[in-house]
Amino acid sequence: MASKQGYGPDLKKYMDKHLDIRLNANRRVIGVLRGFDQFMNLVLEESVEVVGKDEKNPIGTVMIRGNSVVLWECLDKIN
């Protein structure tokens, strides 16, 4: 079901879950969703930047602008 115009995404069921976020410029961040807004700006904690197959850089708490998100995947089971 589509959300009403102006209300933004309904990401409540993904709160406190691990997300794999793919960003523009072929960047990738994995972290726990702690907050979001109507523009799909995301706040992730315990985040790591995935640079290559074997290289991960811990980056802590980050805010990701919604317009830089290309796709995302939830890595935890949703109730």
Question: Which descriptors would you attach to this protein?
Answer:
79 residues
Q: Please, could you describe this protein's structure?
A:
The protein has strands spanning 18-23, 27-36, 42-50, 56-64, 69-74. The protein has 79 residues and is mainly β. The mean pLDDT is 90. It is built from no helices and five strands. Helix content is 0%, strand content 51%. The protein has a five-stranded antiparallel β-sheet, with no helix packed on it. The chain is globular.
Identify the overall geometry: globular
Order of helices and strands: EEEEE
What is the overall number of helices?
0
Strand tally: 5
Helix content: under 10%
Name the structural class.
Answer: mainly beta
Largest sheet: 5 strands, antiparallel
Strand order of the largest sheet: 4-3-2-1-5
Averaged pLDDT, please? 90
Uncertain regions spanning at least 5 consecutive residues: none
Cα-based radius of gyration, to the nearest Å:
13 Å
Q: Termini separation (Å)?
A: 18 Å
**Strand coverage percent:** over 45%
Brief description of this entry?
The chain has 79 residues and is mostly beta strands. It is built from no helices and five strands.
